[in-house]
Amino acid sequence: MRTRPRAQAAAALVLTVLLGLPDLLLTPSAGAGRAGTPVTGAGFPDTTADTDVTFRGLAFDICRAPSLAVMSAWRKASPYGAVGVPYAGRGRACPDQPHLTRRWVAEVHRMGWRVLPVFVGSQPPCAHDPRPASGASPESPGVSPGSPGTRRPVPGASPGAPGTPPKTPIGGAPAVQGGREGEEAVRTAGALGMDRGSALYLSLKSYDLDDASCVRTTLDFVRAWNREVRRQGYVPGLHSDADAGVLHMERARRAGTGDLPSALWFVRWNRRPSLYDEAALHPYAWRVKRRIHQYAGEITEEYGGHRLTIGRSMADAPVARVRI
């Protein structure tokens, strides 16, 4: 028997209250740590000017932007309040986006949606293809430690997305390439009506943190991408597996490295949203309005008569500042 949309929405809202709301209530107030100042003393600096354009609540992400009719129906019937869409980058599995236009961004914003723009560009040279092995992570199907059988999404493709992401490794000049792709991320976001102050999330596949050369190359690329995005007044974020890109950023933070992402969207498919209990991150790092947890993927849901295959996330993080 098919679950009715209203009952499905009610069940999702109960999930939010039971699993997500307590986590959000534990978030310190913005005054506890403004960007550019320590959150809890030395060792936990934020990395960019704060933004007042943030979202707290359930979000979904999808490879190909749905039509405005579908977005309207889901806005009325679903528990979600934000949508993540791969909007640019040469590594996308869904480069064709017939609905994703400047008008689409403005209209969904008017409906009350908040937009999480995902840039899927060059990938770590040691990125690995999906494989059913313990420790395999984000952007690619795999099994999360402690979550047997839990699969992960394809980067930029999002759960259930058609096609396979092209192989787009970072080249021999990662800082130059990162700066160039950061400029592309900002330019494309601006063309879609997303103003300065918008968060843009760089999406990375899972990669081998034991490969020192690959780790250096990837970090150089990410830092250069962040610098360019930040230089142009946007907020750089990172979307990656908790045990790959996100753990890498945490290690870099501990080492005192600068030019790190301002927000982290970590993938751990454990079916339970938890922003501040992530093992890969220190509990006070990237804490104030700086985290998104994608806790499930390849989930098919139906609201308002429209069925989509999506990833589910709990968010307390910056979103796009949309020009109306």
How does the helix and strand content classify structurally? alpha/beta
What topology, given as strand order, has the largest sheet? Answer: 1-2-3-4-5-6-7-8
Radius of gyration (Å):
18 Å
The DSSP helix count reads 6
Output mean pLDDT: 81
Count of folded domains = 1
Number of strands: 8
Protein name: DUF1906 domain-containing protein
Region (Disordered): 126-185
Organism: Streptomyces jumonjinensis
Biased composition (Low complexity): 132-161
What distinguishing features does this structure have?
28% helix; alpha/beta; single chain; globular; 8 strands; 6 helices; eight-stranded mixed β-barrel; 324 residues; TIM Barrel
Written overview of the protein:
The protein has 324 residues and is of the alpha/beta class. The chain has one domain (56-275, 288-318): Alpha-Beta Barrel (TIM Barrel). Helix content is 28%, strand content 20%. Helix 2 (68-77) runs parallel beside helix 3 (102-111). Residues 13-48 and 130-161 have low confidence and may be disordered.
Write the layout of secondary structure elements.
Blueprint: H1 5-25, E1 54-61, H2 68-77, E2 82-88, H3 102-111, E3 114-119, H4 174-191, E4 199-203, H5 212-231, E5 235-241, H6 242-254, E6 263-267, E7 291-303, E8 306-318
Parallel strand pairs: 1-2, 2-3, 3-4, 4-5, 5-6, 6-7
Antiparallel strand pairs: 1-8, 7-8
Helix pairs in contact: 2-3, 4-5
